[in-house]
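Throughout our pipeline, every protein is held as a single compact record rather than as scattered files. Nothing more is needed to write down the fold, since each code stands for a local backbone conformation. For reference, a complete record is included directly beneath this paragraph.
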Amino acid sequence: MAYQRDGRAPVPTDPRVSAVMSRIRAKNTKPELVLRALLREAGHTGYRLHYTKVPGRPDIAFVGRQVAVFVHGCFWHGCPLCKPRTPKSNSAFWSNKVATNQARDKRKSAALRTAGWKVITIRECQLRDRPMAQLARVVKALVK
């Protein structure tokens, strides 16, 4: 079955690129799964995944404590820490895509904070390089 294009992204010149890009997940990404495993091992369960009843649909939401956790992939969210390169093909599209994602991230966080939630953003590189430090950030927000 061929992937159905929705017109938002330019058509890749190589069909392999299209096949790879169509398999990229929006939910349950590897960094999310790593953080969730760390939370379970530390005994912090009872969270909701992709909770739709609050603004921004956080990746992990501790509803009772009003803590929202976003796990951002470095490429897709333009990580300021590791600064991933913009692809050479269609660079204008990708620069705009990342800028749009960053603006959306700011809106989501602001809406949650306005609603009284604590917001934690964990980047893929932070989780890869120092997973226990990222777990500690979440745990600290839960006990406050």
